[in-house]
Write a structure and sequence with these properties.
Length: about 300
């Protein structure tokens, strides 16, 4: 549904996106996760044709995909988009606003489109209410309603739950789940539980780069281990990489132990459903390494995000 290749975008000297590539398959719910300023909103604006990239390509759709850069209007006809903070006309009533959006999109059966969008977002009791009088949660519903009027194949939501209270958050979360039955969904957020509650997959952006792209069910079956040596050992990383079941090895800063000035720490990520700790201990013993600590770590979205943040 989405194929983004080598996207780049700068604002003056600031590089908002740097060689960003990813794909989203039909029917997926994918979370674009990152700190504020990571490049999430810039990515979504480029995907929806509201912003031109400095380089790269984006195609939307399946077999007969559309080039967003060369033909933005055709791409936008396939996309429903909710920008951050739902820019709705507060002086209009809900039905007047949705009627206006339907006219702008040139929908042939406007009344039926509005009726279906209103039912989908549970706005039946607010049709004649001025948008200015609605709560934040209901304004978000109106924003989503305008995004689904034309029954888009792809729904792109920028921070759809930001600023909502707990009950509103649950309502919008359930709404997004219902909408995923008919549309592929890509939404941005900096809230980890939202991605875990809603998504099949998470793409983590940091400083304008894709740092991780993983299925959450695969992530849940993955573990890592932290091995701390009292002193540096030449060639330790290479030995660790050759252990069966080890997927990756990274030398990391070790700050959890006092007086750690001379200590060296390695984090090993295991292949899914593999426990590498017994082999790590056996290798450390065989090599006579000055082992200070060996710790098992369950991989979650939070631990991956924190590890990437520390690396940055």
């Amino acid at each position: 549904m989405i194929e983004a290749q080598a996207l780049s975008k700068s604002y003056g000297d600031f590089k908002a996106l740097d060689d960003v590539s990813f794909s989203v398959g039909a029917g997926e719910i994918v979370g674009l996760l990152g700190h504020n300023g990571a490049g999430k909103t810039t990515t979504l604006k480029i995907l929806t044709g509201f912003l031109q990239p400095d380089g790269g390509s984006i195609h939307i759709g399946g077999v007969n995909s559309v080039d967003v850069i060369e033909n933005p209007q055709a791409a936008q006809a396939m996309i429903g988009y909710l920008p951050e903070n739902a820019p709705v006309y507060s002086e209009l009533s809900v039905q007047d606003y949705l009627s206006m959006v339907s006219d702008v999109r040139g929908l042939p059966n406007k009344l039926e489109a509005i009726r279906e969008a209103v039912i989908a977002t549970a706005l039946q009791d607010r049709l004649t209410t001025p948008i200015a009088q609605l709560s934040k949660g209901y304004r978000q519903r109106v924003g989503i309603a305008q995004a689904i009027l034309h029954k888009p194949q792809l729904l792109i939501l920028d921070e759809p739950t930001v600023g909502l209270d707990p009950s509103q958050l649950i309502e919008i979360r359930n709404l997004i789940k219902r909408l995923s039955e008919h549309s592929t969904i890509l939404f941005s957020t900096h809230i980890l539980p939202e991605v875990e509650a809603l998504c099949d997959r998470a793409i983590i952006l940091m400083n304008g780069k894709v740092r991780s792209d993983a299925q959450l069910d695969v992530l849940a079956g993955t573990s890592s281990a932290l091995l701390v040596l009292e002193d540096d050992v030449i060639g330790a990383a290479e030995v660790l990489r050759n252990i069966t079941g080890v997927d990756s090895v990274e030398r990391v800063a070790q700050t959890s132990v006092r007086d750690a000035a001379n200590q060296v720490a390695y984090r090993m990520t295991a292949f899914p459903n593999v426990d590498i700790n017994p082999q790590l201990f056996a290798v450390a013993k065989e090599q006579n390494w000055p082992l200070r600590e060996l710790r098992y770590e369950t991989q979650t979205l939070e631990t991956v995000f924190n590890q990437l943040s520390q690396g940055q």
